[in-house]
Structures are given as C-alpha cells and as structure tokens.
Model the fold of this input.
Amino acid sequence: MTVRYPRPLRPGDRVGVTSPSSGVAEPLRGRLDVAIRELESRGYEVVVGRCMDGSTHISAPAAERAAELTAMLTDPAIRAVVPPWGGETAIDLLPLLDFERIGRAEPTWLVGYSDMSTLNTPLTLLAGVATVHGNNLMDTPYRTPEGLVSWLDVVTAARGETFTQTPPGRHRSGGYDDWVRHPGVRDLTLDAEGTWTRLDGTGDVDVEGRLIGGCVETLANLAGTPYLSTSSFAGDEGLLVYVEACEDNAFTICRNLHGMRLAGFFDRAAAVLVGRTHAPDSRTLSQHAAVLDALGPLGVPIVADVECGHVAPCMPLVNGARGRLRHTAARSDITQTLD
Done:
C-alpha cells in the first residue's frame, strides 16, 4: 500500500472541528473558544460542525457523526479535521464510513488520539491516508515542550520532510487543569522526571519501520477485523507499532494486548513503542509487566514510557510515516519521514 499524505496546511486554509465521539459540555466551551482562536491566530479559517453537543457521551447520533466526518474529510476546501478530544464509542461510526470514498478524495489530515484511534488507524490501514496520533484540539493551546512538536507543526510539513523528537525528560504526575475556571491555561504542569525504558532487555535500539498504532482500550475491540489488519500495510517493510493505555488495569491491558497479538496486529512489528500511562497496576502485575507478558514473545525491542499517550506531554506520531527509533544510554529519539 502506498501511503498518501495531505498537502501542507497554509494560512487561509480551513480546519474542520467536529466530535466523532464525545462533544463539549457547556461549562467547557470557554476552552473550546480558546483553542479555536489558537488556530485562527495561525491564519486558519475554522469551520465548526453541528456534532458538538456534550450533554451525553456522544455528540450526535452515529449516522449524523459519520456523515459530518465524511463530509469534512471529502471537502477539498477543508485541509485538516481535529476533534475537541476523544470519548468512548467512536466504534459505532466504522460501519457507516465509506472508506473507499474517503480514500478517493484528496487526502485531508485527521488528527487526535484516545478514542480517535478507533478512526485514525483504520483510515490509514484501509484508505492509505496518513493520520496524526497527536494533540486533540482542547490540548492545542498548551505550549509545546522542548524536544517535541505540535500537530500544527506536523500538518504544515511537506511530503519527504523529516522531523525528530526527543523525550523532554519531564511529564505530568497526575491530575488535570481546571478548564472551567482557567480556560486559557497554556503552561503544562510537568512535575515528574522520567525518560524511555527498554522492557525486553538491555542494549542499544536502532530500528526502522512504518508507524502504526493507538490506544489499547479502543483498538483491542477491532482486533481480528478488517479495520485493524496490518497484513498488507506498507509492502515489505517492517512496522514500528505503538500502543498506549488510558485507564484499564494491568490485567485488562495484558489480555487486550495478547488478543491483538493473536489476531496478527503485531506480526510485522520491528519494534514496539509503549506510551507512558497512569493506568493502575494490578495486585500481582504492573503495567510494564503486562506489556512484556503479552508482547515479549514477539522477540523485538519494546520501549516504554514514550510520550504518545494520555500522560502529558504529547509526542505526535504519524500513522503511515517512515520512522526510525533510537534508544541508547546517551540519547533517545524518534525520527519521522513523510515518505
């Protein structure tokens, strides 16, 4: 499969905002307004869809959410689509999305993480369109820590462009900012130290492959279906597979990763990246041990505590990009090439 990249965003382009999963409750509309102004300050025209209601766990009925997302992804005037955040049940959109139609249209960047993995990853695997596992819209006003880039940097990159990210060495130990009282907050609280950890053994890691992955809790439900098949993805190249846990305990994550491995999702992995998590350990099993139990049989490097999950800060990863993972005692980084 040839990966197709949307053209770089330029000032004057339109960015679509819709909620394929959960919308925005009224008390949080102030933060949404701040995030929209952040896009506008960069010269983009923001188009906000109708599927934004935050009074329940879904922004609108599934058919309406699917239609709005499809319309934005196939509108040549909209160059990127970003949700306010994830949610819980974006899986109900999958049978309603026309992946062939979306694949025939000029590619549009689809951005987000968490429940958005339910849509981003299948879009790359089925339609061959690169997508961004990265900051959702409500996180966009935060200043980007040194060593990382924002999704706004990624979507302005041209095909063939290369960018490298390094762990900043600090992350958030827990909690959330109060966007109701402080909708304009821009400084991330990074009050804990830590860098990447190799789980499967020791020694340097230097490996390349196409990037693909997402949130375990959402992707596990797609294991064994065409929506998560990596069998024909990226030709003869290996894959750099990344996974991250949001909130499930270690027993559940262990079972889910075993299931994804048995369904073949990791068959072509040259290495696995695991996002840093605040999800709880179980009584006799830690989150790290859960990953190693399920994915150790792959016999490939497994590097954990990567900034690609629900623990701030966020390291955007492009599904479909060519990646190079390096992890040594002196330096860790991941380089992505839009090729």
